[in-house]
Each structure stands twice: as C-alpha cells, then as structure tokens.
C-alpha cells in the first residue's frame, strides 16, 4: 500500500469516527451519572436535522451547531424529566425517545431534502500539516474534528482528576452515599444527561454539516446505537472511546477504499455491513473478557432511579 492510500484510509477513518465519538463521550458522562439513555439515535437525527435547517435558513454554521446542541439537550431534558423526576423505566423512555426522534426528523425534514447549505470545510493547521504522514491525517481536518481532539483528554481529566468528576462518578456508583455527603444527586444527573444529549446532537450536526453535507432521512444509519455499544467497549472511559470509534471509522474507511479501487471480490452490501458486524464482534469479545471486567464495569446504580425519601 502506497503512502497516499494510507493517508486516505487514516484520514477517512478519523472523519468516519467523529460522529460516533461525540455521541459516545456524551453517553459515557450520562451513564456515569447513573442514567441510561437509549435515545441517542433519535437525538443524533434531530441534531442533524436542526443543525442543517438552522444553517440553511440563517446562513450561519455557528447557529446551526448551536441549534443541534440545544435540540439534543432538550430531548435529553425530556428523558431526564421522565427518568429522574418521575422515575420511569429508563430503557422504555430511551427507546421511546429514539423512535420519536427518528419519526419526527423524517417528518419535519421533508421540505429541506436535497437543499444545499454552508458546510464546515477542512482547515489545515499551518506548520503542523507539513509533518510527514501525521500532518495530512490529523491536521488537515475541520473544526469539528479539532474539537474532538480537545474533548477526549479534557473529558478524561475531568472524570478522573477533578472533584466534580469524582462527584459525578460517585452519583453513578452510590447515589445514597453521595447524597449523604451533600452532593446534589438530582442536579448532577440532570446536568450530565443534558450534556450527553447535546453531544449527541453535535454528532448529528457533524454528519449534516461536514461529513455528508445535507439532510436525508435516517442519515445516522444506526450510529447512535453504535455509540451505546461503544460505551461498553470503552468501559466508560473517554480514552478507550477513541479506540472503539476509530475502529468503527477504520472499517468504514476500508469500505470506501475498496469501492474507490473497484475491488469486486467483496460484494458492496457486505462492505456496508462490515462496520456493524465488527462492532458486534468487539462488543462480544469485550463483555466476555475477564481482564476487561476486572478493570472496569458499569456504574453500580446505572438505570436505577433515586429518591431521597426511599434511600435515606
């Protein structure tokens, strides 16, 4: 394989993984607080729609990105109201939101199918883009991807090396003890549920404003569900989320490479299935790995409602 092909595959792998990475990081923070959000797919679709629609009508990428995060946050707030305040079943509520987002985005997005709006283009970083191999791969990308470079290490540092991060993890592990220690359990769960929804919306905006500019129905193609699986693969650790997302993006990149080179020995429908098949495979391997289970496990109170009167 020549250098040009390698740069193409690595660059496309990063681009293909970014939407999943945003949604995965957001879901990690949400689940760390003890809330299971299965509505990520719907939030990504609504984020993609609202981001593109706001950009199309306002001619402002900034307003488009802002709208996608706000809409994702609002849907997450609805999830929080039912699961945190009303203490409804988190699985049922998440699935209902996913279905709502899928259907609502398809209905509301019909008038703008095929429209063209501003897109977030690549912005080469001076000097750094000249680094052999790494430069064209990492530093000839767009602002969404550069933001992901900051999000992952900052998220890891916040979770494991700050007091608010410790409070967040304690709420997910033992909300009763956290409440006894004076930590506002309900507030923290709401905050990080909304944060996770906003990042899912941002992942959707990346798809409609950068990766595949424009709007079409179900354009996430199940990446919200992939993000939920990647949380398990990542063992609720933002750094491991990068590996899982890049793996997903790498398989996508190989698919594009094979199609560009017109390799016909693998049928196209098999190539389109590969990212999802490999995601299932690594998820099965992870959940059956004893070493992985020893290193980390799901937050102890994930999916369990909290009410002070019942837990005091």
Radius of gyration: 20 Å
Helix content: over 70%
- Give the helices and strands as they follow along the chain: HHHHHHHHHHHHHH
Helix run count: 14
Distance between the termini: 63 Å
Low-pLDDT sequence parts: none
Number of strands: 0
Judged by helices, strands and strand pairing, the structural class is: mainly alpha
Largest sheet: none
β content, as a range?
under 5%
Q: What shape does the CA trace take?
A: globular
Please, what is the average pLDDT? 90
Topology:
Layout: H1 3-32, H2 40-58, H3 61-85, H4 90-108, H5 134-138, H6 143-161, H7 163-173, H8 175-180, H9 185-211, H10 223-233, H11 238-260, H12 268-287, H13 290-295, H14 308-311
